[in-house]
Amino acid sequence: MSLKAVLFDMDGVIVDTEPLHRKAYFKTFNELEIIVSENLYTSFTGSSTKKVCETLINEFDLSHSHEDIAHIKRTYFKDFFYNDEEFDLIPGVKQLIEHYHENDMKLILASSATMTTINMVFEKFGLEKYFSGKISGADLKESKPHPEVFLLAAKMANEPVENCMVIEDSTNGILAAHRAQIFCSAYRSQHSKNQDYTLANIVVSDYAELELDKITKYF
């Protein structure tokens, strides 16, 4: 057993899209004339847009389709994505990605975000050349905390799960990695409030702690 592949979540791990999603969702809630509590909103962290929209429809007995709600939210999100001056990569993540790439790690993106959003992020920040694969949970039957996205990512890397590591920041993502039986490093993001790191193998708040000389002892 040795580390060969790193499976990255995106939201809250590579980019701070969480604040953009929050702004876009709350604009959407206003447009739908619903009041979503902080507890309910926090429970959405790490879930696909489709799953969130379906929850809203059931919770508030909405007549909209999940496609309609997703379209409203996406429109607000794109506006914030291109115009919010605070939007940037998480500090230290580009250096970590380059470090893994230079040391021949296979990098796979395994996110609940739509492929459209993933491609927007990769294009904006020049990440395409470092990753050998990308998976959008929005295209899958099951959403995190189901392990499907990480099991597929390991398969895409052509590595057994014991040779993989997941980097996650949400309760749902950490649980998905745990269920996939993949070593999970939790990143304690300032934007991921009230997340449960109990099932993570290690928890870090600085990406320098995930460089290979620090983590190979676990594999």
Automatic annotation (TrEMBL):
One example GO MF annotation: hydrolase activity
Coiled-coil ranges per UniProt: none
EC number: 3.1.3.-
Top EC class, one word: hydrolase
UniProt keyword terms in alphabetical order: Hydrolase
Protein origin, superkingdom: Bacteria
Name listed for the protein in its UniProt record: Phosphorylated carbohydrates phosphatase
